[in-house]
Amino acid sequence: MRLTNSIFLLLSIITIFLSTIKARNIRKKYTRDSTNGDNYYIIFVNNTLFDIGQNNVKRQDNTIMINSLVNDIHNLIIENKNTYSNIKKLEEIENKDAHLSKRQVQEQYLQDYGDSNLVYPVTTFKDKTILIAYLSPDLVETVKFMPNIIDCVQNRKLKMRSENNYYDENEIKQETQWKNVGIRESLYNHLSLISQGHYSEKLISQYDNNYYYPGSSGEDIDIFIFDSGFNFNHPEFSDKDSRIIKCAFNITQGKVTPSKTDDICLDPNDVYYRYHGSQVADTAAGIKYGSAKRANIYGVIISEIEDINIITGLLYIKNNLFRPHKAIFNFSFGDYYKLNEEDEVIKLYKEVVAEISNLGAVFVAAAGNDSRPSINTRANTIDFPCAFDDVICVGGIDNKYLNVTFLGNRPTMYRKAMYSNYGSVVNVYAPGYIMVGYQDANHVNQEIVTYGNSLSSPLVAGVIATIMSEYPEIQFTTKSMLDYLNRIGEKNIIQYVPDENPTLFINNGKHIVYSEDNKYMGCGIYSGNQKCNCKIFSKINI
Ligand SMILES: *[C@@H]1O[C@H](CO)[C@@H](O)[C@H](O)[C@H]1NC(C)=O
Ligand SMILES: *[C@@H]1O[C@H](CO)[C@@H](O)[C@H](O)[C@H]1NC(C)=O
Ligand SMILES: *[C@@H]1O[C@H](CO)[C@@H](O)[C@H](O)[C@H]1NC(C)=O
Ligand SMILES: *[C@@H]1O[C@H](CO)[C@@H](O)[C@H](O)[C@H]1NC(C)=O
Ligand SMILES: *[C@@H]1O[C@H](CO)[C@@H](O)[C@H](O)[C@H]1NC(C)=O
Question: What is the whole-number distance in angstroms between the Cα of residue 302 and the centre of ligand 3?
Answer without folding.
Answer: 10
